[in-house]
Amino acid sequence: MTARLLDGKLLAESVKQNLKKEVDALRQKTGLVPRLANILVGDDAAAKTYANSQKKVAQDIGIDYGLINLPEDISQKKLIESIEELNRDPGTHGIMIYQPLPAHVDYRLVAECVDTAKDIEGMKPANLGKMLLGGAKIIPATPAAVMEHIKSTGVKLRGKEAVIVGRSEIVGKPLILLLLEQSATVTVCHTGTVEAGLLTEHIARADILIVAVGKAGLVKGEWIKENAVVIDVGINRIGKTIVGDVDFESASQKASYITPVPGGVGPLTVVMLMKNTIEAFKLQVKG
Ligand code: NAD
Asked: Are the CB atoms for 253 and 2 separated by under 8 Å?
């Protein structure tokens, strides 16, 4: 069979329309709109391009977007003071810090200074802890994008074998909890799985396969179970092209649904950050 394509741009557009309606309703109810403040340290051109695309998505939805561009040589103390100022500002509802930060700044320490209610990246221990308890409102954006893709297929997760390849804090680990919350049976593969020679064995069982490793074409079509839903989070640059962690051609012959790279998980990730900004607004502004 040939898999159906999970078009991230199309899905992002439809989620954006729903979020726009939600922001309109919040504006009518409270007289306010959510505001997202993005902190960018230094002059990295790629980060600025990304910030511009984020600004466009925010504006399409009706979210007020502010880029706070600080100098490369800013001290950690001054950076923390800027964050604390945003924490105190009742008009700012979400704060995001671009990575990487300059080497003299400790990202974890700085990120920990963001008010928990404004942590729209969802990576503070308090927000990750809420995910553990279930029903969290703020979910890290990439795992949230993965779940949105799965939801769009209509495939029910209850009792399904979900296999995640990659156990990073920002993708693999949060996905364990999100898939478990939907009653999937969850397996996580990582370098230890590879060393034990068990990677293909686990992948072969997956009804839902999510790959977030960062190795071009790691997962071959012949490893994949017939009719699996395949979500490829990987972004790998090969010369001028970008490819995922799954060998798209061969995997498309086995999967029922598959995300392309680029154009799969990526376009939805930024929209999920906006969803978190709206959730943060609702937690802070009582209408
Ligand atoms: P990471 O480097 O933090 O983690 C990679 C994980 O893969 C580790 O847990 C490691 O144990 C595991 N791993 C390494 N080699 C392996 C192998 N051969 N087999 C199985 N597991 C292996 O990476 P990350 O930050 O989670 O990112 C993973 C990929 O996803 C990258 O390509 C990154 O660019 C991409 N990404 C995409 C988005 C998006 O929005 N689309 C967001 C974040 C990351």
From this structure: yes
